[in-house]
Amino acid sequence: MLTMLASAFTDFFAESYKEAFGGGMSEAVQEAIDPELVDFFGLKVNPSLYSAFLGTAVILLACLVIRIFFIPKFKKQPKGLQLLLEGLVGYFDKTASPLKRQASFVGPYIAAAAIFICLTTLAELLGIRPAFASINTCLAFGLSTFFVINYCGLREKGLFGRAKRYLGNPINIITDLAVPLSLSFRLFGAIMSGFIIVELVYSVIFLSFVVPAVVSVITTIFHALIQSFLFATLSAIFIGEAVE
Amino acid sequence: MNTIMTAADMPLGLNVIEILLHIFNFIILIIGVRFLLYKPIKKFMEKRAQGYAEEEADHEKKKEEAAKLRAEAEEKIREAEVRAAKIEDDANANAVKEADAILESARKDAKEIVARAEADMAAKEVRERAALSREVTSLALTMSSKILEREVNAEDNEAVIAPLIEQFRAVHGAQSGAAESASANKNK
Fold first, then answer.
1. Domain locations in chain B as residue ranges
2. Does the interface ipTM go beyond 0.85?
3. Nearest by CB to B29, which of A60, A89, A93?
4. Into how many domains does chain A fold?
5. Tens digits of per-residue pLDDT, A85-141?
6. B33 interfacial to chain A (CB closer than 8 Å)
7. What are residue A45's phi and psi, to 5 degrees?
8. CA–CA dist A218, A220 (Å, integer)
9. Is residue A123 situated within a structural domain?
10. Which domain holds residue A97?
11. Quick check: B14 and A139 CB within 8 A?
């Protein structure tokens, strides 16, 4: 009786909801979570892979242009683009500097990760599917950080020093295994949710005029900056922990 | 193999090949960012920082040199001051000595002048005495000739002699006054 009433209520609610907002919402969510797979050399892949390739291509092209045309013209007193680049490199260098020997590797690593996360998420504003709206991308980044953590730990402490950490306190095994998962799921949850919200807003006709200007700022720009900052900072912290 | 690749079988479209492709993509990105962007900028920044450090060191060195030169200059000034004080003292001593010498010679000159004046005075006195005695002699001659020329009575005698005596007295008085003034000069 009660269940019947509840289901009747939800049916009624869904019906009235559909009448008010149009039928595109569930399709939009479905499309965001489980997009139509695209072909990649005979392989069915998530379109996020193409977004990731596009992001990498754009970033590398920009780096090349900067390397060839701007870096030779750098002046002693930074201004404009030089100031921005020096600020970025200086920030990542400072973040990686406690890692001593590993700093020259970890600095570029977190810089690349942060720039990639920021740009591919901001690509959503251009209507491109964010690369991190796929769990595969997020897991790839989480696993990369996991590899880097263990590589740096082994290089700094050796096999025995690394083993002592787990033998002395076995809970550390779980702690370390949780790191890639927490990094991946944080990225996936944040960016996917922002993506779904924006898709939802666009799917409803009467919300798609002024509201996206506000919603995009909150869900896309904030997420892009915060998630890239978080990923870089957390990676640096975890690597520092392994090195210490 | 196909079962792993089909996204529909895995939750959330999990796909190992896709993950590997993403990792490969990420590695390329890291390498590119490192060699195209990160390293050149870091090198530039380090070079600049090094340049500034060098400039600072240079500046520090120059400052030290300047301080040293300053100390030397101050030392020189102090020495010069000491020397100047010594020269002044010497000059003062010389001046005092010279002044003493001048004073001494002036005193000597004064003494000489006084002595000469005294000698002059004595010579004058001698001359005057001689002149006086000559006058007295001529006066006595005149007097005696006048007495011999006429019959002399007592009154006449008195009348003639009295002015002569008066004259004599006047001369004598002048003479004794001159002698007195000469002796006074000598006492001075």
1. 17-187
2. no
3. A60
4. 1
5. 889 888 988 888 887 777 788 889 999 999 999 999 998 888 888 888 888 899 999
6. yes
7. -130, 160
8. 6
9. yes
10. 23-243
11. yes
